[in-house]
Write a structure and sequence with these properties.
- An eight-stranded mixed β-sheet has the order 2-3-4-1-5-8-7-6.
- The protein starts with a strand and ends with a strand.
- By secondary structure, the chain is of the alpha+beta class.
- It is built from two helices and eight strands.
Length: 109
């Protein structure tokens, strides 16, 4: 079962400056505050800042129960693979594809 979009990651060039802006905008402190990623949780929504994310652009992640099955079904439907399933720590898996117009679709399990 897919659980919908619950994570949005913005590419940033100055993570300290972006963190200050999003802290003010969201009104919460980050739950993750690392040089490679800053994450905020707001009402069940994850908002992330990625200083290395400009290659991928902004990515909205669809939370899925079975990332391998979902990835294969999207590829069978004509999506183009951008990133294979990757463990980003803590058992969290991500992958991404492009739709027919080049839009990035992120998957997160």
């Amino acid at each position: 079962m897919n659980q919908g979009i619950r994570t949005v990651v913005y590419p940033v060039t100055d993570i300290a400056r972006a963190k200050a802006v999003y802290r003010q905008l969201l009104g919460v402190e980050p739950y993750a505050d690392e040089a490679y990623y800053v994450g905020f949780k707001v009402e069940g929504q994850d908002i992330g800042l990625d200083p290395n994310g400009h290659k991928a652009g902004m990515t909205a992640y669809y939370h899925v129960d079975d990332i391998d099955k979902t990835l294969q079904s999207l590829l069978a439907a004509g999506a183009e693979l951008v990133q294979e399933v990757k463990d980003v720590g803590g058992g969290r898996l991500i992958a991404s594809v492009k739709d027919s117009d080049g839009n990035i679709i992120g998957l997160l399990q």
